[in-house]
């Protein structure tokens, strides 16, 4: 488990965190707009000459790369789960032409947008729903310990939990909580088929910690997962393919297993970083809580 370093709840570091959080919120709220560096410097209340270097030092990527990554992430979800024309998706991602969007998308996702829509991972999982798990779809039963985590709540589309993670990293990095490389988790509290998208609750979290760390900001909240058996599926690929992975796990594997689902959130553990990992190489462990006893009928 990770150690933690206590830090004061206020001070110079926290002032910079609040400034960066304002920039994060502005970027997420204005992905469809041109993001002028001078305007963002004003949002951050920093010198236009220095603020972008501060952002890059804190987040490990340039602002331009952040915006491009977020727009491509949204475009991949639109390709997978909407019928929007490719030209409109390209415009929403701020590309002047479909060819330029296709080149950039292929460089990030490995295939052009049209092929991704037709043959992407979200499709391959859908086609395999009626089949028993093959060698590439293995579920393991794991006994997970209780995990003491620190997180930020998110309400809305699960695809936008990255916003909460960006705020979480800003707060915890400034407080020294990232020095020992804590793991990253997403806790998903609501059933997307039953709860409207705008009301869905989730938590972006890091940990585990041996003891609850001091909270450098009121937005951060401690949370604890339940110890017990979990069905674990390793998902490889873009995050927009997670929905189909869940459909297979819950709709095919679980009914054919000897287990019953337990009350409690679904847990995702993110094994690598989307900032420096190609979407096709992202690794995510999906943990479905199970009842301690096997199901009886």
From TrEMBL:
Transmembrane segments: none annotated. Keywords: DNA-binding, Transcription, Transcription regulation. Residues 21-119 form the HTH araC/xylS-type domain. PROSITE patterns: HTH_ARAC_FAMILY_1 (PS00041), HTH_ARAC_FAMILY_2 (PS01124). GO terms for molecular function: DNA-binding transcription factor activity; sequence-specific DNA binding. SMART domains: AraC_E_bind, HTH_ARAC. Coiled coil: none annotated. Pfam families: GyrI-like, HTH_18. This is AraC family transcriptional regulator. The lineage of its organism: Bacteria, Pseudomonadati, Pseudomonadota, Betaproteobacteria, Neisseriales.
């Amino acid at each position: 488990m990770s150690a933690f370093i206590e830090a004061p709840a206020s001070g110079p570091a926290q002032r910079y965190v609040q400034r960066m959080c304002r920039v994060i919120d502005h970027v997420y709220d204005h992905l469809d707009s041109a993001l002028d560096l001078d305007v963002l410097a004003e949002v951050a209340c920093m010198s236009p000459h220095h603020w972008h270097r501060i952002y890059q030092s804190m987040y490990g990527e340039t602002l331009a790369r952040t915006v491009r990554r977020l727009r491509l992430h949204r475009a991949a979800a639109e390709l997978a789960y909407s019928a929007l024309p490719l030209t409109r998706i390209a415009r929403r991602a701020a590309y002047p032409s479909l060819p330029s969007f296709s080149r950039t998308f292929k460089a990030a996702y490995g295939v052009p947008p049209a092929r991704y829509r037709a043959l992407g991972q979200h499709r391959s999982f859908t086609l395999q729903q009626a089949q028993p798990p093959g060698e590439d779809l293995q579920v393991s039963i794991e006994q997970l310990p209780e995990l003491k985590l620190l997180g930020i709540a998110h309400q809305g589309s699960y695809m936008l939990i990255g916003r909460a993670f960006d705020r979480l990293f800003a707060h915890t990095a400034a407080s020294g909580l990232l020095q020992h490389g804590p793991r990253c988790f997403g806790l998903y509290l609501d059933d997307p088929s039953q709860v409207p998208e705008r009301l869905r609750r989730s938590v972006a979290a890091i940990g585990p910690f041996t003891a609850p760390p001091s909270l450098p900001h009121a937005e951060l909240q401690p949370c604890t997962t339940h110890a017990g058996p979990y069905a674990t599926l390793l998902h490889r690929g873009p995050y927009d393919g997670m929905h189909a992975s869940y459909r297979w796990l819950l709709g095919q594997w679980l009914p054919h297993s000897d287990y019953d689902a337990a009350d409690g959130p679904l847990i995702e553990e993110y094994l690598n970083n989307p900032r420096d990992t190609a979407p096709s190489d992202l690794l995510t462990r999906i943990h479905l809580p199970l009842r301690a006893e096997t199901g009886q009928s």
